[in-house]
């Protein structure tokens, strides 16, 4: 009798663990649905103004520091370090400008600004790695030729902002 009780208990336990369902080992496992990424909403004009100013402020500050160092006749290695800082802030602000969903009237001038920025960025990187003062100044002048000042002015106009004033 004990043998039957032990066997019956074992059978009950084994069938209880199986759940009674036939499992196809090749059947695909259920996939959990993930939340689809949402696209950010287009900024309102007021939000766009604030966002633009916040994005470009670090780049403008770093660029002005470089200009001050050049105008003050600082050693070329100091200027090179500042040029590398300009390259980093230039790249960072370009990423943020690209990731922002601007109002429709800002998109075309922003695209033109970013196109100029891409050219300038190559020169800022080279300036930050320059081997001598001549190479440094050559790359700074090349970057300045693609400053995007005209395009940035159009972005500012589209945003309803006044012209940029250094300082």
Describe this structure in words.
By secondary structure, this protein is mainly α. The protein has a domain at 46-159. 69% of the residues lie in helices and 0% in strands. The chain contains six helices and no strands. It has helices at 2-18, 45-71, 76-99, 104-128, 133-144, 149-159. Residues 4-21 have low confidence and may be disordered.
Distance between the termini: 98 Å
Number of helices: 6
Low-confidence parts: 4-21
What is the average of the pLDDT values? 86
Main beta sheet:
none
Sheet/helix structural class: mainly alpha
Number of beta strands: 0
Shape: globular
Order of helices and strands: HHHHHH
Q: Summarize the amount of helix as a percent range.
A: 55-70%
- Which percent range describes the beta-strand content? under 5%
As a whole number of angstroms, the C-alpha radius of gyration is: 31 Å
Brief description of this entry?
This protein has 6 helices and no strands. The chain is an all-alpha fold and 167 residues long.
Descriptive keywords:
globular, 0% strand, 6 helices, 167 residues, mainly alpha, single chain
Element layout with pairings:
Blueprint: H1 2-18, H2 45-71, H3 76-99, H4 104-128, H5 133-144, H6 149-159
Helix pairs in contact: 2-3, 3-4, 4-5, 4-6
